[in-house]
Amino acid sequence: MRYEDRCMNITVMLATYKRNEILSRTLDSFCNIITDGLSWEIFVVDNYGDPKTEQIVLGFNNKLPIRYLVEKKRGKNNALNKAVKLATGDLFVFTDDDVIADHNWLMEMRDGSMRWPDVSVFGGRILPQYPPETKSPISEAHKFFKGAYVVVNWDTGEGHCPPHKIWGPNMAIRSNIFLEGWQFNPDIGPNGDNYIMGSETELLMKLEESGMNAVFLPNALVYHQIRREQLEVAWLYGRAFRYGRSMAQLYELPNATYWFNAPRYLFRKLFETAMRRIIYCYDYDKRIDLGINYWILRGNIYQYRKRAKQECLDVGK
Q: Which residues form the signal peptide (predicted)?
């Protein structure tokens, strides 16, 4: 049988942590996915061990090829690594517990992976789905909008792209990559309220450094469920802080003069941004924009100092 004619086995994986209402909507959307000719399975990994979550997942047993797993070691990437070890699919499709899948999502992933047999990493579009009669506190044209609300809608057709432009809620990786020893870094990603963003990005950046390419599949579509609290400015600033932390952790240390284990220029930028926030306190858009920049800088400084402390501990060991 030719490769392009065989049935692609797919394992869909997601981690969840006490978000039962959102998870239920996600699984409901999976019931409407077209899977003609697909042999597939779904792993839901509970990163808490909540009986209510188990009840919800098991309630879909008669509708979906679903399996409930528990990983009590905190961290989304710990949960994903557990699923990876047990998955049987040829193509691992990763998503989150707060998506609404398009009907053709898995078929597009399957077909795309067949059209690009020499590529191992794939990603699709992610569009926002807002609660009724709400809107984002920043415009969709704002430079932080896509990162804040996990939106992927690159203005390109199907084709090659660097792996770091593939985002976790709509990502597929061939199983052989994990058989070669690659895994998600358990020190990055959701792990409580104050965490380093970029749980999947760290792995994708390493795959990119190893020489791998990826393919963007615009017709493989999921929607990100935006919660009402995510439309509050305070949440947006918290997101900016976590984003700043991820920038300081994932990239190489800058060649700069350091103060208190963080680049000195960051303190200057932080002070300047704080002063401009005061000056523009009556300009809503400008104030929000400066607030985002301020909290990104705060996240940068926090993580550089934390990173230096951890490196000192590692040297001591």
A: none
Provide the CATH topology of domain 3-231.
Answer: Spore Coat Polysaccharide Biosynthesis Protein SpsA; Chain A (3.90.550)
Find out whether 40 and 6 touch, Cβ atoms under 8 Å.
no
What is the Rg, in whole angstroms, of the alpha carbon atoms belonging to the chain?
20
Residues 47/72, Cβ–Cβ less than 8 Å: yes
Q: How many CB atoms lie within 10 A of CB 134?
A: 12
Distance between first and last Cα of the chain: 54
The mean of the pLDDT values for the chain is 94
Structure tokens at 148: 């804040």
> 4 pLDDT exceeds 50?
no
Q: Which two tokens stand for residue 213?
A: 């390419």
Rounded Cα distance between 106 and 220, Å, is: 7
99 CB contacts (<8 Å, ≥6 apart)? 26, 29, 126, 169, 170, 222, 223, 224, 225
The CA distance from 244 to 148, in Å, is 12
Instruction: Give the pLDDT band (50/70/90) at residue 223.
Output: very high
**The amino acid at 114:** M
CA dist 165 and 168 (Å) reads 10
* Chain position carrying tokens 């001591």: 316
**Cβ atoms of residues 192 and 165 within 8 Å:** no
- The answer to whether 105 and 223 are in contact (CB under 8 A) is no
Residue 2, H or E segment: none
Query: How far apart (Å, rounded) are the C-alpha atoms in residues 230 and 248?
Result: 23
State which amino acid sits at residue 237.
Answer: Y
At 310, list the tokens: 């951890």
Residue-range domain boundaries for the chain = 3-231, 233-316
pLDDT (tens digit per residue) in 146-155: 999 999 999 8
Ranges of beta strands (E only) in 181-298 are 214-225, 258-259, 262-263
Q: Which residue has the tokens 């209402």?
A: 21
Once rounded to an integer, what is the mean pLDDT over residues 259-282? 97
* pTM of the predicted structure, to 2 decimals: 0.92
